[in-house]
Amino acid sequence: MNLSRRFTACLAALWVSVLTLVVTPAALAADGVGLAGRVNDKFITFFCFGLIAFFAILVTVLSLIQGRLDAKKDQRRHDFDRFS
Length: 84
Fold this sequence. Notes:
Shape: flat
Number of domains: 2
Number of helices: 2
Number of strands: 0
Order of helices and strands: HH
Radius of gyration: 25 Å
């Protein structure tokens, strides 16, 4: 019973995924014009440079946050060992 329910759920998820892949491009682009309008190479280049910059900044900021949290954890551990 459980196996057939799992198979049905997988089949339904597959059907929704395939339907989404088929319908989405037609819904978002009419005559080659998407949500951003007509795009040229300059637009695509700057958009991709923006993505590269975003992820570089994201990794840097998250690394700085992790470093500070690790420093706080080490300080707490040191204080706990000192007072114990």
